[in-house]
Specification:
Oligomer: single chain
Number of strands: 0
Distance between the termini: 30 Å
Shape: elongated
Number of domains: 1
Structural class: mainly alpha
């Protein structure tokens, strides 16, 4: 279990964003959501990744 936790360290946000984006694309392909909703979902996934990266960079700066 520790190996899995160590492997996922720093990747959980990106995996979650990718799964959310894939779900939105599938919903759009099936006609359940509009193109605007797809773009909103994609934007939310990208924002989550950028926020995660920004937090990681700031933490790394303070640990120097």
């Amino acid at each position: 279990m520790t190996k899995i936790h160590d492997f996922l360290k720093g990747k959980k946000t990106y995996i979650t964003a990718a799964i959310g984006l894939a779900g939105a694309v599938m919903a759009w392909a099936e006609g359940q959501i509009s193109g605007t909703a797809l773009l909103a979902s994609a934007w939310a996934a990208v924002q989550a990744c950028f926020i995660r990266a920004g937090i990681a960079n700031e933490v790394a700066k303070t640990q120097l």
